[in-house]
Specification:
Helices cover about 30% and strands about 20% of the residues. The chain has about 190 residues and is of the alpha/beta class. It has a seven-stranded mixed beta sheet, sandwiched between helices.
Length: about 190
């Protein structure tokens, strides 16, 4: 069990999906969020869900509600998470990446060092900002970004002491951003359940 907390980011607009992807059914779970929460609790001692409101979820979990309700950006989720948690770092994962497994997570922790601001996965040279470890040393940068209305995690990571860890399995990093990707994700998970 990993002692450092895990935070599932589930507060996005889901504009490409056309409906709240955090609430879509997945595998044997009622929602994608519940699927992620249940499976990650087998890896991490403490798992939290970063969201606009916990009221939309019909299961018990540790929720961190965004301090700025009007802003749909991960920056506010990071600031809220660091404000609530005592930990100096946490693992961040998006609700829509259900195939990032324990091997990937453990590999990221093996590369993480106290001197890093972040340790982030890359796939074929492209950064995966919501699959990585973020350190409290970034909190002021997050606050500054929010004040300046800058919300791209890539901007923050390129301007910080970020350790990149390379992976090459596309299926593990499948993002369920739209209906087509969701359908593909369902095919993968339903095949693995047989």
């Amino acid at each position: 069990m990993i002692q450092i907390p895990c935070i599932i980011f589930a507060g996005g607009k889901s504009s490409r999906m056309g409906e709240d992807k955090a609430l879509l059914p997945f595998g044997s779970a009622a929602t994608l969020t519940q699927y992620q929460y249940t499976r990650l609790l087998k890896i991490f001692q403490n798992v939290y869900i970063s969201t606009k409101t916990k009221e939309k979820f019909e299961f018990d979990a540790n929720f961190i509600e965004d301090q700025h309700q009007e802003l749909f950006a991960p920056t506010t989720g990071f600031i809220s998470s660091f404000s609530i948690l005592d930990s100096d770092r946490f693992f961040a994962i998006s609700v829509d990446t259900p195939f990032i497994d324990e091997i990937i997570i453990q590999t990221l922790f093996e590369h993480d060092q106290d001197t890093n601001d972040a340790t982030i996965a890359t796939l074929e040279g492209k950064m995966q900002p919501l699959c990585g470890i973020y350190h409290r040393s970034l909190l002021n940068a997050f606050k500054e970004m929010e004040q300046n209305n800058i919300h791209k995690l890539g901007y923050l990571l390129k301007n910080s002491n970020t350790q990149l860890v390379h992976f090459n399995d596309e299926n593990k990093f499948l993002n369920l951003n739209n209906k087509e990707e969701y359908k593909k994700g369902l095919e993968i998970i339903n095949t693995s359940l047989i």
